[in-house]
Each structure stands twice: as structure tokens, then as C-alpha cells.
Amino acid sequence: MEDALRSNRDLWDAWTKIHVASSFYDVPSFRNGDRPIRVADYEREEVGSVEGRTLLHLQCHFGLDTLSWARLGATVTGVDFSEEAIAAARGLAADLGIPARFIESDLYRLPDVLDEQFDIVYTSRGVLGWLTDIASWGRVAAHFVRPGGFLYVTEIHPVAQVFENEGVERGELRLAYPYWSHSEPLRFEVKGSYADREAPTDGLVEYGWDHSLGEILTSLADAGLRLEFLHEFDFVPWPVDFLVEGEDGRWRLPDGSKGSLPLFFSLKATRPLEAAPRGLGHP
Prior knowledge:
Elements: H1 2-20, H2 27-32, H3 41-47, E1 54-58, H4 64-71, E2 75-80, H5 83-96, E3 101-104, E4 118-124, H6 134-143, E5 145-156, E6 186-189, E7 205-208, H7 213-222, E8 226-233, E9 244-245, E10 251-252, E11 264-270
Parallel strand pairs: 1-2, 1-4, 2-3, 4-5
Antiparallel strand pairs: 5-11, 6-7, 8-11, 9-10
Helix pairs in contact: 1-5, 6-7
């Protein structure tokens, strides 16, 4: 397991350098204000106003979403296990004069280095599949939600993750991967990045873990949070080989597909005012 996690950390260190320079993330337009906010409209609507609120962003990569919430008025803290990502996030925040704190930490060890609670704990888009233990993730995420605060998650739907995404045609749904959690990670030789398919990544390996929607929700319930909503969407906001890009830049099943599938989801889970954080246990 340690070898797999070390490999993933090396991968994200390498990917950070690719992503900061990529057209996918388009950092120049974030800097100059042409695209100053990188969280989706539906996220802003579901989270609500963050003005004057504290926000912890788990698995923040190099901070574009974190700094977007800061631009919307939140007092932000971003956390990621990649040294390169945190360095890039700190540099971007300093260059733009955006107040933000960034912490380099493995998610499961974060309670050892951060002793605070937050109005909002936020995590999004392509993060849960890197986690070895979803129940421990739920305890850690809930640990940082203050009474009356909430956790907000938006992520690719576990159903979409069971299908092969390489060497398939548009609309071809080929069952290939587990739906429920598994202890042995999936292993992939890395070819470029989701942000740049042609980027040099020789020798890098990705390890991933699947988690069902039920397991995700149960982890939060067991940690003392109360589900406010679960929304499921028909799109993914990045390229997926079996989907087709729409005019809005989101990827969906081709027109004329038989049936439909949930491809993305969002959830909000609150900590009741009278509740105290439960024990963290161990991942």
C-alpha cells in the first residue's frame, strides 16, 4: 500500500507541472480575471454564499478551486499530499494577493497537523478514487465540520467508473471495473494526463480504488453527518471516451442512447448543532 501511495504522490507531483502549464486549467485566464472563478455554477448555487465563512478544501491540487472560493469571500485552507501542488498553490496565491493557507498533508493524517473546524468542508471532481479507505475518509472529513456547518462533495458518479474508458467507441458501455470498495488497488500505466494526453509521463503508474455511492453516504452517516441532499447529473465535466462533448463543454451519452445513467453527483451533509465530532479511528 505504501508503494502505491508513494507512486500516486510522484504522479501528482509530475502532473502538477503539466497542469499548471496546460490549456485545460488555463491559469493565465485565472490570473488576468478572464475566468476568475473555477467552481461550477451549480456548485455555487448548492453551497450558497461563502462570504465571511471558513472553508477547508480537501485534495485541493494546486488551488484554483480553493482560490475561487476565496475570491467569492471565503477564508480558505487547501490541503493536498503533493509537495509540488502545494508549492504551486502558495505561489499562485502570493502572486495574485489572495489570502489563502495551503497545507501539505496526507488526508488521513490531517487531524495530526490541523486542529480546527470549519463552516464548510469541500471536495470535488476526481478525488475519491485516490482514497484507500472511504470509511476513514468520512470520519476525517466530518471531523473538520463544525456544529451547524456542512460537507459538500461533487464527484464523478461511481456508476460511471465501472466502464472501460480506453479503446471504446462513443456510447460503448463495457463493464470493466468494480463498483464496491476493494482492498487491492487498480493499477494503470500512465499515458499523459487528463489535462494533456500527450504530456511525457514515462515510468509513472497510477493506483486507484473504487467506492460505491452507498459506501460514500454511509461513511458520512456513521461519522455523525446528516444528509441534506444527493443530486445526480447526466454529465461529466471532462473528456470521457464513451461520452460525447456537448455545446456546454460537458460530456454526456450520445443522443439516441438507450436508457440513461447517472454520471456525476453532488451531496451536502451537515453536522447538527448539538452534535460533537465522533472518534476518528484508523484508516
